[in-house]
Specification:
The chain has 560 residues and is mostly beta strands. It contains 3 helices and 24 strands. Strand 19 (309-326) and strand 20 (329-350) form a beta hairpin. It is elongated and about 100 Å long.
């Protein structure tokens, strides 16, 4: 016996609205009784954090006997079930089917939704136990006979949830956090002592980005002045001490004279230059995966200094902060990507002849050919994980022409130290950055969402102005009084743990799902593929989607 899942033209990764098609290939060496073939499309967001030894800030030791060393939290962000053999309309009490030796193929199809599933508490409360092929039933059989065993959705009600777009695949912190998607097949074998056959295939997922705001000329900036320290006077400019054995010069006390240097500059204490460096990004600040940063660097002269200022170093770092939450514990993991690092530069950004306020735009060739690494995932927020970004631009400026690459300070041992280039290294910081996946939503969906937003709020009618003569004001006409009616009692929403019961004669829907959102309803009307395979960017947020999980499984029954 062997089981495998063969996908039809699998892309590098899947995204929202994609239709995943494939077939389950079952090879048998003998006759087997098969009750059903069940395929599930699942996504899990798992976190695990160790309980601290002491309560932070209070110095109270925890009781190890009352709690485990590690807490787990598992969210079923995606959960779809389909019976592909026999037909879903087959009765739950149908007898098992005997399959002959050989190879058997069973086709399946799913569509990736927009939002996570665990945020729908009503659907989670109704999901659980044993269900029929066509829906839920309280009298389904046991041990794989006449029913489909699914996860207990009520366990998801113990956690707090948010309703957001499905997050990307992620395995960046082994043993602490991961987000996985996979297709799982279960072949039910009726019988008390026969174990069901299972197999799963991992997938990569990258979500569609939200609609971008319209382009504008506004920019977000981070700026700060780069001010140099005054240079010390040269020793040969100081007045020489005269010996008391010699008489004073009749010409009077001597004073330092300004001597010309080899390059024609006067050897007098010069005014230290001050340059304002500003980094600018389009507002709102949005970066895109696998694309360069749309950065502008501008140098502005602040004081009338007779000096030259050079750019000698630049380094651009993207900082990712991942918030890992597990029940009452929270930890922030910091990751850093060096986008570009250039040292030993000699780019003139300020001339002595430039007037105060002169701006110089640095050439973007220093960074525009360096896209974001393919390990950078888009910003996301889910129930127990979130990722946001910051940008840091480190700049190095030099007062005076810098040394040539490969020349050390030992070569200037005989020269005056005050004539050596003075360098200042300071960072420019953007505290809030969003990274988009680069997968734009379908234009039809964007237009439908905009049209819905325009019609959601009815226009306010114009206010009617009544003109009355000032000489004879008339009292306002009061409407006739109507008998006061008691408002109908408001119905409290049902508790998710205790869903409302059906009235006599009512029938429950097929799977009891909550009504979809407008975006999901529009997405169901669209047929894929939304994005051609050759147009999808590279993404390596997950190294191996089929490797074993590094997180210990949660309590039994949570991850069915």
């Amino acid at each position: 016996m062997s089981i495998r899942i063969a996908l039809d033209r699998p892309p590098e990764f899947y995204t929202n609205l994609d239709i995943i098609r494939g077939q389950v290939v079952l090879s048998l060496s003998r006759h087997e009784h098969i009750g059903a073939v069940i395929v599930k499309l699942e996504g899990e967001s798992r976190t695990a954090l160790g309980v601290p030894d002491e309560i932070l800030g209070m110095g109270i030791a925890r009781d190890r006997a009352s709690s485990s060393d590690t807490l787990h939290e598992n969210h079923k962000i995606l959960y779809k079930v389909a019976q592909i053999f026999p037909d879903e309309n087959t009765s739950a009490i149908a007898s098992p089917i005997v399959l002959n030796p050989g190879q058997h193929r069973f086709r399946f199809q799913f569509k990736f939704p927009f939002n996570n599933a665990c945020g729908n508490t009503e659907a989670m409360a109704k999901l659980g136990g044993v269900v029929n092929a066509g829906g839920f039933a309280s009298g389904a059989g046991l041990f794989g006979m006449g029913g489909i065993r699914v996860m207990d959705g009520t366990k998801q009600l113990l956690y707090s949830h948010v309703k957001k777009t499905l997050p990307p695949s992620f395995t960046g912190f082994p043993g602490e956090a991961e987000i996985r998607y996979y297709v799982k097949v279960t072949i039910q074998r009726p019988g008390l002592f026969k174990e069901n056959w299972r197999y799963q295939l991992g997938l990569k997922f990258l979500p569609i980005e939200p609609p971008r705001p319209p382009k504008s000329n506004q920019e977000a900036y981070a700026r700060r002045p780069f001010t140099f320290h005054p240079r010390a006077s040269r020793p040969d400019l100081q007045p020489k001490k005269r010996s008391p054995f010699f008489g004073r010069n009749s010409d009077g006390p001597s004073s330092p004279t300004a001597k010309g240097s080899a390059d024609g500059a006067l050897d007098v204490p010069a005014t230290p230059p001050s340059i304002e460096m500003s980094a600018r990004l389009p507002h709102p600040v949005l970066l895109t995966c696998n694309t360069p940063i749309p950065l502008r660097l501008i140098a502005k002269k602040l004081v009338p200094a007779n000096a030259e200022v050079y750019l000698v170093a630049i380094q651009i770092d993207l900082i990712g902060k991942t918030a890992v939450r597990c029940q009452d514990l929270l930890r922030t993991e910091v990751s850093r990507w060096v986008i570009t690092a250039r040292h030993g530069l000699s780019i003139l950004i300020s001339n002595p002849e430039d007037a105060v306020g002169t701006e110089f735009i640095l050439p973007d060739a220093l960074w525009n050919d360096m896209p974001l690494p393919n390990t950078v995932m888009p910003s996301f927020t889910t129930c127990n994980l979130s990722r946001d970004y910051q940008l840091e631009v480190k700049l190095g400026l030099a007062w005076g022409k810098p040394n040539a690459p490969g020349v050390s300070l030992l070569g200037h041992r005989g020269k005056d130290a005050s004539r050596l280039p003075q360098e200042v290294h300071l960072p420019l910081h953007f505290s809030t950055i969003e990274v988009y996946s680069g997968l734009s939503p379908p234009p039809a969906l964007v237009e439908a969402m905009r049209g819905r937003a325009a019609t959601a709020r009815p226009p306010i009618p114009p206010r009617q102005q009544q003109h009355h003569p000032l000489s004879s004001p008339t009292p306002p006409v009061l409407p006739p009084r109507r008998p006061v009616q008691q408002p109908p009692p408001q119905q409290q929403p049902p508790d998710a743990l205790y869903p409302p019961q059906l009235h006599p004669g009512e029938e429950e829907s097929a799977y009891g799902d909550a009504p979809p959102t407008y975006e999901e309803a529009m997405a169901e009307e669209m047929t894929g593929p939304m994005f051609p395979q050759e147009a999808r960017p590279a993404y390596s947020g997950m190294t191996n989607e089929n490797e074993p999980s590094t997180l210990l499984p949660p309590e039994k029954g949570q991850g069915r």
